[in-house]
Amino acid sequence: xxxxxxIDVGGxxxxxxxxxxxxxxxxxxxxxxxxxxxxxxxxxxxxxxxELEMPVSQLLNETDHIAHGTTSSLNALVMxxxxxxxxxxxxxxxxxxxxxxxxGRYLGRPQHELQDIMGQSxxxxxxERRLAREAIERIDRAGNVIVPLNEEDARQVIRxxxxxxxxxxxxxxxxxFRNPVHEQRLRELVHEQDPTAFVALSSEVSPRIxxxxxxxxxxxxxxxxxxxxxxxxDLEGRLRDLGLRGALLVMQSAGGAIxxxxxxxxxxxxxxxVLTGGVVGCAQLAKKLGHDNVIATxxxxxxxxxxxxxxxxxxxxxxxxxxxxxxxVPTLRVDxxxxxxxxxxxxxxxxxLHVGPLSAQAAPGPACYGAGGTEPTNTDANxxxxxxxxxxxxxxxxxxxxxxxxxxxxxRIADPLGMTVxxxxxxxxxxxxxxxxxxxxxxxxxxxxxxxxxxxxxxxxAGPAHCAAYSAHIGVANVVVPLGPVASAFSAFGxxxxxxxxxxxxxxxxxxxxxxxxxxxxxxxxxxxxxxxMKRQGIRLNRIVLxxxxxIRYGLQLEExxxxxxxxxxxxxxxxxxxxxxxxxxxxxxxxxxxxxxAGIHAITFRIRGFGLLETHPxxxxxxxAVSPDPSAAxxxxxxVCLTAGKGFVDTPVYDYHAxxxxxRITGPAVIQVPTTSVVVxxxxxxxxxxxxxxxxxxxxxxTQFQPKRSVAG
Length: 714
Hints:
This protein has 18 helices and 35 strands. It is globular. It folds into 5 domains: 3-75 and 229-248, Nucleotidyltransferase, domain 5 (2-Layer Sandwich), CATH 3.30.420.40; 77-226, Rossmann fold (3-Layer(aba) Sandwich), CATH 3.40.50; 273-340 and 440-496, 2-Layer Sandwich (Nucleotidyltransferase, domain 5), CATH 3.30.420; 348-430, no CATH class; 505-613, no CATH class. It is of the alpha+beta class and 714 residues long. Helix 14 crosses helix 15 (463-473). A hairpin with a 5-residue loop joins strand 2 (13-19) and strand 3 (25-31). It is an enzyme of class 3 (hydrolase).
């Protein structure tokens, strides 16, 4: 076995972890380099090679594979910074993408906004109306062609869209997942006029029932697909030129990677890849630390991402939400808001303070970077509050200026609100902690859990500065900050330890009792597709494991529960057992007696999860033990730090992480300075360093842990 590299490209920083053949690890962090993010990747690899004391060419030649995750696509969607695209759907259904199935006012909204009916509004449309067009055709629910595709009319529609200068077109027709012939022909017609145009078909991107979710998924995949393809093609070419021998993989939302050459065709599956990497990393660390229930939080430069591990397994979802739009991709449950370290603080017309979703990103970056940014961000506030060192970030490699941060906060926030700069910075810090805490409470409670039964894992460059506060906000007693050699590059660690995961699905609605032959036919086709795709990954797999799932619901309902189907022949008995499992899972989710089999039980979507297992075995190296809990030997300095507006600035000890040892106890208020992040231990809390360098913060040792009475299925 050779080296394995995980690289997490965020909107602000690029993190990298290399696993040596013996499982030990080194990490690196460097600023991201928009618009050419590949340069940041190459810089991170340079730093890894320096840590390993070998030439870059040797490292790449001895690398089995690089697992690459990026938030750039997700950030582009969250902030609406995507190119204009064309959209073609069935005649009479163009406005479905704008009507949003009446979901647009509430999807993904926090509870307090749902209660404010008058304050609700739809998000900006995914597609400009002038670029949303229709094709004359119709296929029925059985896949029969009712109205043939009018090709002359379609050619004219395509000609008009391309004349607007767009380079990509999303095609999503009614019932195309039952019969894709018209979508496939439309793609041929587009390429007749422009062979270079990027075309995404809903029958390939999201072959599921329900038109709005299928439309939005296909549109968003089309918005990010061309850019992802150009980026990955260029990056892989540059890596090959430098000597890369192994495969370049891209992380997906489903918890595993896919070959870079295959990623653009299903670009939407990659948007949650970075947090997915973090969840995979958390699952590995949680097994070692004995934590069954974990909330994984990744606070990068642009986004705040959160996922859940329950009973030792990541919580999965068949759908996620981005900017109030549904995204139809099987995923580890990941929720995101634009609330990272670079999130911009701003005032609305009523003088209310907001943080995010827009971000200063890496260019120009927060005002304190001195690179032209003028908007105040979380990072600027943390610098004013004393959380960040004035000597700079990344061990001084990224200089920062407090005067520029103060000026941005004064001009945009403090003066308009009649505050001091310090009060305004404390307000930004409080808003950031409250809104991230609200997101965590929402996703945990909606999954059927009590957050007090969970441990929060915090990573990312900005996560450790806020984690104790947002964890206490939801009643979590224990917070884990995975420091050590992976520190703020924890998502990159998860990427390096992930497997290949390929998912194929298909909607074929049927009513119980299900026809075994029809079910077997669905799964046989999906299994063939997965196995064929595995052969295209360009990497040696230890073994392949396939799991079968069916999304099932009761009649007269819209939401399904994903239910496993046992291995072996599909028989009437195995399908009856699957239905029984569905009813048990439904009862665990919604309460005993809440199901109503009399309404009928319907199978909606059939799915195969294929896992191509790779041989990666990360090893956490032990940390030397302290002679006593007193961390005084690691004290760097004492400086004024403000963590709450009520207490103001307090002289606070700042500790050097590299000098801390297993058994040291950090009593708050305190700051632990790591080259790649700063960890805050607030007043009234304490943190212990364990034998592998992990910091465990106790937010409130008096919090009572309750045993959950129900849990989420699967």
